[in-house]
Write the structure tokens for this entry.
Amino acid sequence: MKEVGKENILIDDALFVDQWGRSKRKLRISVTDRCNFKCVYCMPEHPEWMNKKDLLSFEQLYQFCDFMVRRGIESIR
């Protein structure tokens, strides 16, 4: 068993479980940090944008999603 952060643990490199023992099967990915909706619940007042060169390519995003699916993720948004 390996610890991942304070709230999640990784068991057998396959299943993500939170601190209450609930399995995590959903993954949500933000493709970019440059959303123009400016929702108050997710956009800080003075956002600091990442450099475009630091964003993952579509191929890298696909590889990451594939990696997560092989470890138990069933839904990606």
